[in-house]
Amino acid sequence: MTTGSNAQPEQAGRAVAAIRDLHPGYFAFIMATGIISTGTYLLGPSWLSQALLVVAAAGLVVLGVALATRLVYYRSHVAADLRAPDRVFGFFTITAGLDVLGVRLAMAGHPLVTAILAAVAAALWLLLTYGVPASLMLTRASDSVLGGVNGSWLLWIVATQSLSISAATLVPAWPSQAGLLAPTATALWCVGLLLYLTIVAIILLRWVTVPMTPATLGPPYWILMGATAISVLAGARDLNLPKTIPVIAATTPFTEGSSFALWAFGTWWIPLLVILGLWRHVRRQWPLTYEPTLWSIVFPLGMYSVATLTFGKTAHLAFMHPIAHVMLWVAVAAWGLVAIAFLTRLAGDLGMRPRRTTE
Q: DSSP letters of 148-162?
């Protein structure tokens, strides 16, 4: 008798388990793929940009179906994620993923699709931006959420700034709505900026009050840099809007100065995050295996490249251009490594590896 005789039921069971236990932050795959597609659209090669755009769109369909299935059949697991402070902010990757892909599609000449994705993302953002903090504050009787704080909390900022970018992106497509879209983009950028300062303070408080372990020092902490990068990109998109719009004229000096400060702070984070990674995997010998949150490293690298290139052009800072080029290929390499690790894990989970027969 061979183990292959029950392979199909076993694979089906693993597929069901994958949907049931789907990590709420898995839409970071779309964020990472979409932003690198954007970067290669701006810097080349164009064939890679097109390929990644197709992969991101396909990923959105697959993850969308998986999420819908989970909401229908495994609501208790979704509810458990919503109550977990270390996982709940992962749901903001849905909003950010829709926006990042939508902005890339606008570059491809599909602003209507961008508007539709942005509208869905905005509805989800409104639900999450008030529901998540309210849940954490009002449904916990005694225990503190501080132990559950991690880098994924910064996805709140990423999602907010992604909406700002979508709004700014739609201004050229619908100039008649600039009076609504431009103030919305600017207001969301300001909200994201203040949220970043607040969440970083909470994270630093957690670092100095709760013991750090390899398990808690995970990939989402790279969003400390990614959140600054997307804030810089959102600021640059605002700066590129017509100065005849009153809110843009009023906020341009503040936006430009703050965007450079955010870029500098995000750059400052990179060596520290590398050191923390070395401590986790070299000093403490934490296994370097695939986990869904690894896409939370790829996205900040890609976003840093696009933000650096865009802000550098907007502010006429020529030194940023070569930095963007280098970081883009770092992001592409990181995407490739994480994708290989994912496919290897997927092959194993679905029983696609060769099996020995048994009597």
A: G--GGGGHHHHHHHH
Supply 52's token pair. Answer: 């990644």
In a domain, 123, yes or no: yes
Any idea which residue has 């953002």 for tokens? 125
Series of mean pLDDT values for 10-residue runs along the chain (359 residues): 57 80 95 98 97 98 96 94 92 98 97 97 97 84 78 97 98 94 98 97 92 91 97 98 96 97 98 96 92 95 98 97 98 97 84 47
Does some domain include residue 292?
yes
**331 Cβ contact partners less than 8 Å away, ≥ 6 residues apart:** 35, 36, 39, 298, 301, 302, 304, 305
CATH of the domain at 148: 1.50.10.150
The per-residue DSSP string of 294-320 comes to: GHHHHHHHHHHHHHHHHHHHHHT-TTH
Q: Is the link from the previous residue into 292 a cis peptide, with omega within 30 of 0? A: no
Cite the DSSP H helix spans in the chain: 7-20, 28-43, 46-73, 75-83, 92-107, 111-138, 155-170, 178-209, 223-239, 246-278, 295-315, 320-349
Q: Does any domain span residue 355?
A: no
Residue 228 lies in a domain: yes
Q: How many structural domains comprise the chain?
A: 1
29 lies in which domain range?
A: 11-349
Encoded amino acid at 153, one letter:
W
**Alpha-carbon span 267 to 277, nearest angstrom:** 16
